[in-house]
Amino acid sequence: MSKAKRPGEPSKPRKTPTGDYSVGYCRPPKATQWKPGQSAYPAGRPKGAKSEDTIFRKIISTKVPMSVRGKTRKVSLLEAVWTRIADDALKGNAKAQALILNRSRSLEAAPGERVMREDDEKVLQSYLRQVAAEIKAEKEHS
User: Fold this and answer.
1) Which of 7, 34, 79, 88 could form a disulfide with 93 if both were Cys (CB 3.0 to 4.6 A apart)?
2) Where are the domains of the chain?
3) Exposure string (b/e) for 43-72, b if CB count within 10 Å is 16 or more?
C-alpha cells in the first residue's frame, strides 16, 4: 500500500539539475522562462470574470424602490417580484395564484425536498415575461 499524500506536498520529488552549466536539464534559457505575472494562457478567462450564477445572485439581491401602503422603501428584487406576484394573485391572475399556491406547498415540504417543479418553473417564466412586458410598456409611456 502506498503512503498517503499530504495536502501541499508534491506528488513527485523535485528534479535537481546535475552538472555545472547555465542551460540544460531543469535550467531553461532565461529568455524562455515565465516572467512574473505572465499568463500561460493569455486568451483564457480574464481576471475577475463572473459566472452566470454570480451575476444572477447579484441582480436578485439588488435593492429596488417599492411603494408599500404609500411609503417607498428599498427591497431586494426578489422580494419585489414575489410581492408583485402576490398582488396579482389577489387581483385574480390565475397564473400568479397557481404559482403562489404551488410555491407555498413546496415550502411546507421537508427542506431537502424543496425543488421547483417543471410546471411551476414554466408558470414563473411565463409570468416574468408578462411582467417584463408590462414594465417595458409603462416605461415607454413615461
Assistant:
1) 88
2) 52-141
3) eeeeeeeeeeeeeeeeeeeeeeebeeeeee
Digit-coded pLDDT (tens) for 104-119: 887 777 666 656 777 8
pLDDT in tens, 32-47: 888 888 877 777 777 7
Furthest CA-CA distance within the chain: 87
In angstroms, the CA 100 to CA 1 distance is 58
Is this prediction's pTM over 0.85? no
In this structure, are residues 35 and 27 in contact, taking their beta carbons and an 8 Å threshold? no
61, 76 contact by CB (below 8 A): yes
Query: Can you tell me the distance from the alpha carbon of 116 to that of 105, in angstroms, rounded to the nearest whole number?
Result: 10
Q: From the CB of residue 127, how many other CB atoms can be counted at a distance below 10 Å? A: 20
What letter does residue 20 receive in the DSSP assignment? S
- Of 6, 42, 12, nearest to 26 (Cα)? 12
Identify the sign of the CA torsion 65, 66, 72, 76. negative
